[in-house]
């Protein structure tokens, strides 16, 4: 699955860009709880992305070897989100809950951004031919 690993490399790069912007926002603005919520949510979202890619890779290998696969880890990813919600509830003075939820959705946003960028790149390559 080289395409999946290539996609994961691009998504990982975008996630690091978002995290670096959030860390700069946390360090240089007065909205520290908002950016801390974004950092926590995006970090957990990044972990969920890694889980999804690793489970998908294992799924592809199992299908290629005619083996059974239990799941793609939806319950694990939900448990990670619940763990993050518990942290935000325990420390409401540190984390802004809306920004945490937005951070949890970051990898979906990153996937959409990558899709649009790849669509534009593909169209340009077709036009050049």
Automatic annotation (TrEMBL):
**Record's bilayer topology term:** Multi-pass membrane protein
Which InterPro entries does this entry report, sorted A to Z? ATP_synth_I (IPR005598), ATP_synth_I_Bacilli (IPR039072)
Its localization reads: Cell membrane
| Pfam families in UniProt | ATP-synt_I
Q: What is its main location?
A: membrane
Q: Which residues cross the membrane?
A: 12-28, 34-53, 74-91, 97-117
Q: Which protein, by its recorded name, is this?
A: ATP synthase subunit I
Which taxonomic lineage does the organism of this UniProt entry have? Bacteria, Bacillati, Bacillota, Bacilli, Bacillales
This protein's source sits in the domain of life called Bacteria
Provide GO CC annotations from the record: plasma membrane
Q: Which UniProt keywords apply?
A: Cell membrane, Membrane, Transmembrane, Transmembrane helix
């Amino acid at each position: 699955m080289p395409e999946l690993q290539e996609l994961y490399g691009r998504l990982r790069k975008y996630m690091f860009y978002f995290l670096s912007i959030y860390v700069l926002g946390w360090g240089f603005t007065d909205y520290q709880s908002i950016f801390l919520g974004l950092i926590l949510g995006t970090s957990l979202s990044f972990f969920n992305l890694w889980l999804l890619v690793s489970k998908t890779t294992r799924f592809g290998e199992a299908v290629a070897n005619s083996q059974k696969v239990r799941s793609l880890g939806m319950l694990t990813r939900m448990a990670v989100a619940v763990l993050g919600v518990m942290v935000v509830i325990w420390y409401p003075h540190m984390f802004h809950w809306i920004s945490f939820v937005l951070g949890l959705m970051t990898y979906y946003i990153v996937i959409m951004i990558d899709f649009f960028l790849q669509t534009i790149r593909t169209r340009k390559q077709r036009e050049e031919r």
